[in-house]
Write a structure and sequence with these properties.
Elements: H1 3-27, H2 36-50, H3 56-72
Helix pairs in contact: 1-2, 1-3, 2-3
């Protein structure tokens, strides 16, 4: 496994972890209810990205999704 693959794996693990934590906070009403629709849309995008084969484009997309998720729920 090359460095790029290891970095992508780490990004995807982080993305899945952040999504899980955000879902939990939302269900505990610690994430603003007003963010619900954006969170659902982002959730779908993240699940679609996690289902993709590894590629340089996926690495870029994963980074973008991590940034959007953190902006939506900055804990």
């Amino acid at each position: 496994m090359g460095e790029a693959d290891a970095n992508l794996d780490a990004q995807l693990r982080l993305l899945g972890q952040l999504l899980g934590e955000t879902r939990a906070r939302y269900h505990q009403r610690r994430t603003p209810f007003a963010a619900a629709e954006r969170l659902m849309d982002l959730d779908r995008e993240i699940r679609a990205a996690l289902a993709q084969a590894a590629s340089p484009e996926l690495a870029i997309e994963a980074g973008r999704l991590i940034d959007r998720l953190r902006a939506l729920d900055p804990h």
